[in-house]
Design a protein that fits this description.
- By secondary structure, the chain is mainly beta.
- It is 10% helix and 16% strand.
- It has 1 helix and 3 strands; from the N terminus they run βββα.
- A 3-stranded mixed sheet has the order 1-3-2.
- The protein is globular and about 40 Å long.
- The model has no long low-confidence stretch (mean pLDDT 84).
């Protein structure tokens, strides 16, 4: 299976901490925001996916296969709502 790097907005971890879920070794989660202080406000997240992947897995990623935007609050028995606009992927030169 493919390695998956996920970005998370939530609480209970340090900002930019990389989490390895207990149920799989092929997923890493990087916390990009860890407080609820900006709830209800638009935010911009600018990430270097390749650099984050190397930090998370210790090696360069293969070809990007897909991008998914999800909301997930079932583990905390809560709810979530998010709006996404202007998602842009930019290939950086070597």
């Amino acid at each position: 299976p493919y390695a998956t790097l996920m970005y998370s907005i939530g609480s209970g971890v340090e900002q930019y901490e990389i989490i390895t879920p207990q149920y799989t070794k092929t997923i890493r989660i990087k916390a990009v925001q860890t407080s609820n202080e900006k709830t209800g406000q638009w935010r911009i997240f600018d990430r270097n996916i390749e650099s984050d992947f190397i930090k998370a897995f210790g090696e360069k990623p293969g070809r990007l296969m897909s991008v998914a935007i999800m909301g997930d609050a079932d583990n905390t028995r809560g709810s979530s709502r998010a709006f996404v606009a202007d998602l842009e992927l930019i290939e950086l030169g070597e």
